[in-house]
Amino acid sequence: MSSDRKNNIREMARQNGIVQPLLTDLYQITMAYAYWKSGKVNDTAVFDLFFRTNPFQGEFTIFAGLEECLKFLENFHYSDSDIEYLKQTLPATIEYEFYDYLKDLTCKDIKLSAIEEGSVVFPRVPLLRVEGPLIIAQLLETTLLTLVNFASLMATNAARYRMVAGKHVSLLEFGLRRAQGPDGGLSASKYAYVGGFDGTSNVLAGKMFNIPVKGTHAHSFVTSFSTLGDIHSGTLRHADTETQCDFLKMVLECRKRVSEILDVSPEEASDGELAALVSYAQAFPAGFLALVDTYDVKRYNIQGLASRHGQRTNGHSGYNSNCGSNGHSIRSLSAIRSARGYSTFERTLRSGLLNFCAVAIALNTCGYRAVGIRIDSGDLAYLSVLARETFNQVAKELDLPWFAKLTIVASNDINEETILSLHEQGHSIDCFGIGTHLVTCQRQPALGCVYKLVEINGQPRIKLSQDVGKVTIPGHKEAYRLFGADGHALIDLLQRSTEPAPEVGQKVLCRHPFQESKRAYVIPSKVEHLYKVYWNAGKICTFPKPLVEVRERVQTSLRTLRQDIKRNLNPTPYKVAVSDNLYNFIHDLWLQNAPIGELF
Ligand SMILES: Nc1ncnc2c1ncn2[C@@H]1O[C@H](COP(=O)(O)OP(=O)(O)OP(=O)(O)O)[C@@H](O)[C@H]1O
Ligand SMILES: O=P(O)(O)OC[C@H]1O[C@H](OP(=O)(O)OP(=O)(O)O)[C@H](O)[C@@H]1O
Ligand SMILES: O=C(O)c1cccnc1
Ligand SMILES: [Mg+2]
Fold this sequence. Notes:
about 600 residues, alpha+beta, 7-stranded antiparallel sheet, 6-stranded parallel sheet, 20 helices, 25 strands, elongated, binds 1-O-pyrophosphono-5-O-phosphono-alpha-D-ribofuranose, binds nicotinic acid, binds magnesium ion
């Protein structure tokens, strides 16, 4: 680990100022006092942090948030003002020596073991194991949970979007305005990137986490221009010759030419919109990506869409004909036209596309290549195909092959189902800009990680429940991932830490933790020990990987899962088992702890 990297972690830790010891539930501090008062200062404990159910009706979860947990441990310290606040807030009966004790608390005696960040993980397998003094380990609960729960939920959500989108489509996170407050927005941007998004519109996230920042422009930019008279200056410096071009004149000539090619009247295009696009192109001649739906008749084409967020049934499927750069089928426009039978298609996007093409061609004459368009309303399958056909036509007529490859960005309330449906229908979209449903985790707003005591002073602890799924697996454990003959992950196995690790080629009995009859022998082709010690003796001992490597880890880890475990509808559950020894240990302890009732 270079000193640069260490400094970098410290630097980020400072910026993440909201994560601090008081970012917790009051009951952690009141329990700490009661532990302290009852002489438990030297008690040692083991806590497991795990979840019981995968989110989004899926069968896998991506573990994220570890780096933030380490920063939290590194900085754990009650400041003078924290102590002052607690003195004012807790009952006056609290002994002052407790505050002296709190003042000196750090995580120097804590040991944290964890699964590698970015790995696929499964219910009941602890993501973190925290060992050390009971009081401090207890004080960490809420903060560790808040750092892992949303991070893992978001990374999982983003990974699911990536899976349905496929690897050839770009995904941009646009959610800050809709996120659960500023910190939710920042975390959403970070973990959307980890889960497989390519960039974010969130500038602070870009700066803090070194995530690519990307963006287009809004409708307000277009509507702020009314006429061509709003253009400040009609000129643009040529990219190569550096001479001033009469850009506006070129654009107007190009508009005339394109309107002939597309057989639409230039009078039907908005001059205010053209003024906006010209001005944007002058500001960003080499990065011109324009929103083209401001003045278009969109509703004609959205009539068939069923409900806002549900499955869309607009009679689109079944026309797939060829394949676009995004790897998804594209129907030809004539197929759509004849299927829909309406004649209004010529009016769709006529203003925006015409104006965009005019500006893009004029830019080309000045030595620049436009990037593309964004569509933010209407039927995104249909409009993207319409746009691509238009680009193809211009490319052919004007002998500008690159025009056919212009980027088409789509946004507007997109979720996993929309992407699946668009793929089914066929579209020509290269990039999705996704906000609300991604960052608010529309399909499941919380992951249910819990933090449970599994051992105290070397003695195992079990939490019993009527609901078997809620019974905790006691004791200090290790977790292993066993791989099958075909190289896929087969099962996760929990064992008591005193047991020898499973070995490649050696038969292991894997048992369902609670159902006696469910068991299987596994001969692993590979065994992965899931835990590494990340924090010990007051310092980070395994340094977390840079975000971009965590992001890669997500994809490599997902590749180890069989397809049926990852599919969207009714996925197969992945198996999590315990060793025979741990099975017997759990059930003996269960019997010891379950009270024997009396019948009268
Ligand atoms: N081809 C399609 N298949 C399935 N869903 C689509 C398709 N095209 C668009 N959608 C989705 O349909 C919804 C369209 O939203 P809505 O009915 O509000 O129309 P709109 O074009 O956004 O109108 P406005 O711009 O006036 O708000 C969005 O959630 C969008 O993601
Ligand atoms: O739709 P989302 O997935 O949340 O993506 C982000 C949205 O935010 C922007 O506009 P905004 O929604 O603020 O205004 P608009 O709907 O009027 O375009 C953008 O145009 C997208 O539509
Ligand atoms: O850059 C964009 O196009 C953008 C950014 C945030 C929200 N919607 C769109
Ligand atoms: Mg919107």
